[in-house]
Hints:
single chain, mainly alpha, Helicase, Ruva Protein, domain 3, 11 helices, TBC1 domain family member 25, Rab-GAP_TBC_sf, GTPase activation, GTPase activator activity, Rab-GAP-TBC_dom
Amino acid sequence: PHPPAPLPPPPPCAPLSDADLRGYLGPAGRLLRPQELRLHVYHGGVEPGLRKVVWRYLLNIFPAGLSGQERLSHLQHKSQQYRTLKSLLSTHSHPSDLASVGAAVRKDVIRTDRGHPYFGGPEEGHPHLAALQDLLTTFALGHPRLSYCQGMSDVAAPLLAVMDDEAQAFICFCSLMRRLAPRFRPGGKGLARAFSHLRRLLRRIDPEFWGFLVSRGAHDLLFCYRWLLLELKREFAFED
Length: 240
């Protein structure tokens, strides 16, 4: 049988603007058409100044149907929960767990996006490095079966830079990790599933390129390992 024809490119779409976002909101600021909002962002992206607001929707940190005021209250409540959890774990965790997790996190934090102004500068007393260290350590101690794995700092750093708030970045990171956690677990089943999905997509979207990869023995796609683990984070400029 002939291979399927390549899929057509998506229609052009401008980045989501403030006016566009308001168009997806109804009375009292309730999000009425979440799937359409996601499709708009998928095809066109988001204006940089709106990322802090829109990423919260994309990461599903709010229960469905909340008004604008209810979302604000929910965010404040979850932020306070984070501060309580951080304090509890930092004072009640076993000292050896706290030391080993903290050391593993620190090893990555001091190397993560240090060329970006938000994380650049002297390490000593750096508030953003400290915030990244604390949110990742809190996550690891609060999720002992997963703990901390190399690469998580790469995922968390853009969230912290955009939210510019440790608690909100933690909330977003936890939500994102609900989807990404299988890729970081030992055994590699989550990554194997991602590789399988990518192979199926390539065969469907670009059969000619897929055939080229097969002819070169590269259809295992191992060169995509970092792309899939970190959601292409290192393949784009930080601002993108």
